[in-house]
Amino acid sequence: MKLQFVSVLALTMSSFAFAQNPLSVHVLNTETGLPSANVDVVLEAQQGDKWVKLNEDKTNADGRISELYPKETELRKGVYRVTFKTGDWFKAQNKRSFFPEVPVVFVIDGSLEHYHIPLLLSSYGYSTYRGS
Q1: CATH for 22-128 (3.40.50.300, 1.20.120.450, 2.70.70.10, 2.60.40.180)
Q2: Global pTM exceeds 0.70
Q3: 4, 34, 82, 105: least CB-packed within 10 angstroms?
Q4: Quick one: residue 33, left, alpha or beta (phi over 0 = left, psi -120 to 50 = alpha)?
């Protein structure tokens, strides 16, 4: 009976790992050291020579969108673009900025179950990397 409980627990834990949305983003303002809430973010997939919009959302109070990939959609290999609408966000903060948006183009190759795109942002610069 104990073995059966462990098997059910293992199955539940593995299902939980696969239930996580495969794409998240996080925006941090490096000028203030604080998260950037209410940044509009657009996710697109490259299909041939066109970009197809898949989803759009705003960062939460912690500067995060934990489920940017469309729900109920299987993760597909390909080239994707996440565009952070930084100019609109800075304008709402009554600040000037140099970059009206930050497009991040990346490849989903299927080697990971979850992809994370952090954006470190200031009025006149940004940095991004593949997070975990």
Answers
A1: 2.60.40.180
A2: yes
A3: 4
A4: left
